[in-house]
Specification:
The complex is a heterodimer of chains A (415) and B (146).
Chain A lengths: L6 H7 L5 H16 L5 E3 L3 E3 L7 H12 L8 E3 L16 H16 L24 E2 L2 H11 L10 H8 L1 E3 L13 E5 L4 H4 L4 H13 L4 E4 L7 H14 L5 E3 L18 E5 L1 H11 L10 E9 L1 H13 L6 E5 L1 H6 L3 H7 L2 E5 L16 E3 L2 H11 L3 E3 L2 H10 L11
Parallel strand pairs in A: 2-3, 2-4, 6-7, 6-9, 7-8, 10-11, 10-13, 11-12, 13-14
Antiparallel strand pairs in A: 1-5
Helix pairs in contact in A: 2-3, 2-6, 3-4, 5-9, 8-9, 8-10, 9-14
Chain B lengths: L1 E7 L7 E11 L3 E7 L10 E2 L4 E2 L15 E4 L8 H11 L5 E4 L4 H14 L5 E4 L1 H6 L5 E4 L2
Parallel strand pairs in B: 3-6, 6-7, 7-8
Antiparallel strand pairs in B: 1-2, 1-9, 2-8, 3-9, 4-5
Helix pairs in contact in B: 1-2
The chains are: A alpha/beta (415), B alpha/beta (146).
Chain lengths: 415, 146
Amino acid sequence: MTLELDSGDRAVLDGQRGEGAALAMRLVVKMAEVARAPRLRDVTRAHIDSCLYHGRAGLDFAERLLTGGAAVSVPATLNVSSLDLLHPELVRLDEETRDRAKRLMDAYVAMGCHPTWTCAPYQLTDRPAFGEHIAWAESNAIVFANSVLGARTNRYGDFIDICAAITGRVPESGLHTDDGRRATLVLRLEGLSEELLDADVLYPVLGHLLGRHAGSEVAAIEGLPANTSEDRLKALGAAAASSGSVALFHAIGVTPEAPTPAAAGAEEAREMVVTLADLRAARGELSRVPDGAEIGAVSVGTPHASEAQLRHLVDLVREERPRVPFYVNTGRAQLAALDSVADDLADAGVTVVTDTCTYITPVMHGITGPVMTDSGKWAWYAPSNLGFEVALGSLQECVSSAAAGRVIRDERLWV
Amino acid sequence: MRQLGRRRSGDPRRAFVGVMEGRVLVEGSATGRALVLKEPLSFWGGVDPATGEIVETGHPQRGEVVTGRILILPSGRGSSSSSTVLVEAIRTGTAPAGIVLGEPDDIIVIGALVAAELYSATVPVVVASPAGYAAIRDGEQISLVP
């Protein structure tokens, strides 16, 4: 199949919008060839992950685009960075890295991106509509946009995200097409108790298991409650996009493209039964610290805590004050929307981190012992990134454990 | 499908073993010893670009070094930051010599393409046929040819 470019695409490729835009279009076209796409299609917005500093290469690329006069042609939000601009004292980076990280952030703002600095752009007021074609990067945002909002994005990574924002174009392939969104794997939940289905902690564990089994396939989950909250679907998707490459899952009777198994294309998919034993094993992979063990800290809010999660956390820490360092990551927009939450959390001894996240930049220091989290994604990455052992529990269990200084969990859910 | 690989035995006396075909995603030539991963890998959080070492906790090949190897992996996984980590590894010289995938992976491909634009250096990326993929043995010499 040969790629058909329209006259606008060719004009950009030929440099009529400058060298930067031409570079962006060159990369979009190459990715379209790799995807065997018949043509490019418009996107209405982008979410950019490339603003997170991982070394000189990312900065070299951004400054090449900027020097070439590139600017975004559709609204673009920015992912977390390596710095917390609201609480700069929290991040312990050497001065050179800090300067480069800031230069990288500035370059993306200079190209016209909005300085949202959040990994959860779906928690901003203006979010994609059902069926809207978008170019999002950040694995948890991709899976949320596709699965929960029914917007359409492929699994865009660093570099191609900003190229899509500059050109407003992406390959017409994969999850932008109806065919690409049909489930090829069904996970059928069997024999799970009502209590477990109504426990926050099930969702990151189920997500971890989904990522392990689905890889990059589209899976449909049968057996989740119809009223499963966005925060639970967020936790599920974020974990699935960490242990696997999941970019879209359907939850039958829950998510918008899956009112029935047939609507999700699940009738011809292969099926896997998920039992309590499977979930216990998945939980054991993420959470290697036994109940009762002393902990050194707690980190929650990966992906960034929603307003509902922040309010819940305030209520919990008012009851039980943490004895060990307690961090919550959230977006600056969530914090700004809630009047007294920042003060309430500070009063309870909780450190609020914005614009970045505790697992990608050095914020947690002087911590001895394992760390507890409510996030499957954090539990997946922190042992490699930070060297911590991790215990996974619900937000409530995290707060109780922080107050006791040791892991306290409700094991009755898991028997 | 185009010819992309010549598989050679680790034994220099039996240099030529076979040819397999696959699909070229990023062009280039490379030769090196195969490092066959038993699980997918996220470059971000999974490979230290300063050393080329696999650091993903729980990965069966944690501690192996990807530098100069032909990295054979079923697929990528996880973070969309993996593209940048791959370019950074190419920039600093710790990247694999080439990458053979079981299925296409956009995040790996864009990293290889950007390295070519920025530094005129890249790693070839190919998708092997299922039979070809299964035939590759860890440690054997492999050449990727365009």
